[in-house]
Design a protein that fits this description.
Length: 139
């Protein structure tokens, strides 16, 4: 509750008495932290709505942002703070594949990063696949 009140107070502080912004805000050129939500995430979080690359592009356009870095959420299938997932590595691969395919649809606007729990035995192999085959940034 205190956080919600603080957020409201900060939001109100940015506006004048007549509800007009006192500071001109220029949107960033690049959003460095975005996620897409594919069909696989429904198994972990049924209430999460699917968000594809085209949906993200529409949101970026609305906000005046030119590019975005998309971080795969495949790590969530190997998250040590959640119950174990059946066929974990297969789901990690599928999510990284899906994210890579989505990002590849908008190569001038999106860059992707694979996601993996680095403590898992499959981590190095999955990172290697991302580096060699998928359209993920590895520099």
């Amino acid at each position: 509750m205190k956080i919600a009140i603080l957020c409201c107070a900060l939001a109100m502080a940015a506006f004048g008495a007549r509800g007009q912004s006192q500071v001109a805000v220029t949107p960033p050129l690049v959003d460095h932290h975005q996620h897409l939500f594919g069909p696989g995430i429904k198994k972990l979080s049924p209430s999460v709505e699917q968000i594809e690359a085209s949906d993200l592009i529409a949101l970026l356009d609305k906000a005046g942002i030119r590019k975005a870095v998309v971080l795969s959420i495949a790590y969530q299938f190997g998250n040590p703070n959640k119950p174990a997932v059946e066929d974990e590595y297969a789901r990690v691969k599928a999510e990284n594949d899906w994210t890579s395919q989505q990002v590849a649809r908008f190569p001038e606007r999106l860059r992707g990063f694979c996601s993996v729990n680095p403590t898992k035995e499959y981590a190095i192999a999955e990172i290697d696949v991302a580096r060699k085959i998928r359209s993920f940034i590895m520099d």
